[in-house]
## 1
Amino acid sequence: MELVFSNIDLWLADLGQLAYVVAPLVMMVVAILPLPAEAPALANGILFGPFVGSVITWAGALTGAWVSYEIAARWGRPIALRFTRDDIVARIDRGAERAGWWGLLVLRLVPVVAFTALNWGAGLTGVPRWRFLWTTAVGIAPGAVLFTSSGFGLRALWQRSPPLAGGLVLLLVAGGLIWALRKQKSSAT
């Protein structure tokens, strides 16, 4: 694994300043598409360290969330109105309005709520742009720091104890696979 980290360091050195553009773009894509953001956040911690990596993770995710919101507000809402009865859309809008900023912030802080779905849903329901942006900025900060710092910690752990770090990685991968299989099984029924 040390070879992997030294190859990452070489790749980062070869990429130079462009790495500071590529990493946030990856986070943006992950925020727009329904892809898990944990792996790129961990990679940002490994590549850039806990502080700079967290800023890159946070800024990229926030920008991607904003892009999703704007696309949904601009083009998604008119499409939804063509295929859904007006009273249903109005009921969903009222629910989002009743939840207010507090409800949106709480949803951002709950890790099981799908990040991408919330981005698109806020645009579709007409959540005010400023409310969406500030609750997203505040709500994603803890996760960005946690996952990015975990990547930095994993690298540090590997340098101290490769068997322990390898075991932890295997445990995380196995846990992730079990979780994904259970989620897939529950959604199929």
Note: The chain has one domain: 2-162.
## 2
Amino acid sequence: MLEQLVTRRKLILLASVSSLLSGCSMFSSDRYSYQPVSYDNSEGSKVLRTAMSQYGAKYKYGKASPSDGFDCSGLIFWAYGKHGITVPRHTAAQSKAGKWVAARNARQGDIVVFRIGRRLHTGLVADKGRFLHAPSSGGYVRMESLSGVYWKNKIVGYRRIV
């Protein structure tokens, strides 16, 4: 299992490097079309960098580790935990953790909260317009646009932990 995970990550890295060098993506799947993130020195940026290390990891409901996979709140719980920062494990509690920040003030590592039907979903702000998340069953940890057709009208707010 670990060998498969390492092989998958190598393929993703290879596709990313190849994409950067060739100027176009080799794959149409979002999980392979990685665009680099510019990190700063903030605590939130450090948390985001840790979460980004799991780019391409498999979604698994109720899980929060590289070996088992991640659900949306599990990725956030794990990434913050790696920096000794405690955040709630579940989405509903994450949606109330820390303090509220306006969208225009959101920065790397802030939690972005979405309402999808009656459920909540969380991700981490990557930069001005993208977020990292573990989307759903059958999915992989990936980046998406906050202004994308699916996501932009589902944003409930942003929470700052650090």
Note: The chain has four helices and eight strands.
